[in-house]
Amino acid sequence: MSAAEEIVVEGQAVEAVPKRAMTLGTGTSLVVLAVLLLVPLVVKNFIIFQMTMLLIYGVAVLALNILTGGSGQFSLGQSAFYAIGAYTSAILMETFGVNYALTLPIAGIICFGAGFLFGQPALRLSGVYLALATFALATAMPQLLKLGYFEKWTGGVQGLVVEKPDAPFGLPMSQDMWLYYFTLVITVAIYVASINLLRSRSGRAFMAIRDNEIAASSMGVNVALYKTLAFGVSAGITGVAGALGAIAVQFVAPDSYTITLAISLFLGMVVGGVGWLPGSFVGSAFIIFVPNIAESVSKGLSGAVFGVLLFLVIFLVPHGARQVAIVGQQLAARLRR
Amino acid sequence: MELFTNQVLAGISTGAIYACMALAVVMIYQAIDHLNFAQGEMAMFSTFISWQLMQWGVPYWFAFVLTLGFSFIGGIAIERVLFKPLAKAPILTNVAGFIALYSIINSCAGLIWDFTIKQYPTPFGSSPFLGSQLISTHQAGMIGITLLMLLGLFFFFRYTRIGLAMRAAASVPESARLVGINTSWMIALGWGMAAAIGSVAGMMIAPVVFLEPNMMLGVLIYGFAAAVLGGLTSPFGAVIGGFLVGIFENLVGTYIPGVGNELKLPIALALIITVLVVKPAGLFGRPIVKRV
Prior knowledge:
The structure holds two protein chains of two kinds.
Chain A: E1 7-9, H1 26-38, H2 45-71, H3 78-95, H4 100-122, H5 128-146, H6 151-154, E2 160-161, H7 175-199, H8 201-211, H9 213-218, H10 223-249, E3 251-252, H11 259-272, H12 279-297, H13 302-316, H14 321-336
Antiparallel strand pairs in A: 2-3
Helix pairs in contact in A: 2-7, 2-8, 2-10, 2-11, 2-12, 3-4, 3-5, 3-10, 4-10, 7-8, 8-10, 11-12, 12-13
Chain B: H1 2-32, H2 39-55, H3 60-83, H4 91-113, E1 128-129, E2 132-136, H5 137-159, H6 161-171, H7 173-178, H8 183-209, H9 216-230, H10 235-255, H11 261-278, E3 289-291
Antiparallel strand pairs in B: 1-2
């Protein structure tokens, strides 16, 4: 609209988070892990199931965090990769009789490939344009899954029912509890691997691209490769989360993986703090529990209550749970002194 | 050939809906540099207000003007109360704010006016336009109004002082502040105008898609797509983009076998992305030069 020549100093879409600020300290991490290990022994099965879902969504939010907080790219299409992971796992288990644990790496690899390929055209896009492209992917996915051609495998609109695995070696635990610990082990593995990834050479390349693409490329970072790689890794991890989700919910259907899921994951990332990996699990708790709380406050106005709560969070802590953690750390340091 | 012409005509008439919405999207993008996810819901809420006014016996055009004014003030109020405090927050936090606003407006409208589908009157009538079965007088009127709005906006931005100030505030905020433009209020004004344009879009669309709290969801997606296709920096591009998306969508549905209603949207979006990959700033947008 303006006639003046626009020369814009590239605004940062994502603020720079230093590597060290991306994780919790070792002591805190161990305490959290201990709590996660012990709580299921004392609570009911339904709560164990909810905790499993919390971990699964947490992994999916973590994947988005690597993409956005790490490499500075934006995605509203995570639900598509989640769906691919879930369907891969369900089809392998139900049609081909593969063991559930083995379906996870396969789902991860397939989603990594899908993400890497999708990253290629997405390379030319950034900001809102990238958001639109990923958004298109998310809206297309449920429709593609419903297509008649694939109905033999996907079960069409009805979806597929997945059997819940029993605890192995005759361990005396309920299916829910076994699945929880199984999920916990995989979550911890992915979490540790993600931290190591971001601390590695590749992680530094991601962050260099996030902070300044032009400078990064002049330092010799292969921008195209690392951007697509970030997409691939993020999609792969999301795929594993999707596969776990399919096993936990015991059901996959096209309408479980709409754009709403992608938006939830995005909200989880913002609430948890962009670029702060432990925050992913705080964000995941937000997207699982807050809609329920909103529903219990008022049935008719649950959407409004949810919106108000979300506004409260972003007004009080615009940087999400990370901000809370930093304030907490400073308080602790002051007390020690 | 006749099928082709008819489908193009039908495409243009649905395209007018998208063009309306895209215009509102571009307006707010110009003012605040974000895509507002709650835009459609704001338009829906305005449309409900005009419907309520008409239920109370206010004549159409009077209700139209009242709603326009209400939306303008409402848009400014939303910016002042909710988004001004977030101006310094990260962009992604702002996007979360839009989603929250969406959820609040949608839920409130559902509570006040419930989710049943309502008829919405048209001032243009719905008889066939110039003897064509595919395009009704309402749709012709809608296209007319869209073009009129575009023209009005063009004159506003090109020839008025305040339009110039808004352009300045959007493109180089620092320099604009130095010459004494209140950039913060320009943003609020942008919100107000976008809300008003959105309300016109809503009132034009409602007779076609019927009035209900979720009526804008699909329209907004196409509106975004149209705006991005035309180039987010160009209101003219947005309108053209809207018509193009409408035509795309109809032709895809007619000529590619096996494409039901369900696959129309993904295919239209895929086409748009293909265009964007070739021309990343949209068809009419200016590429932005970046400095390190």
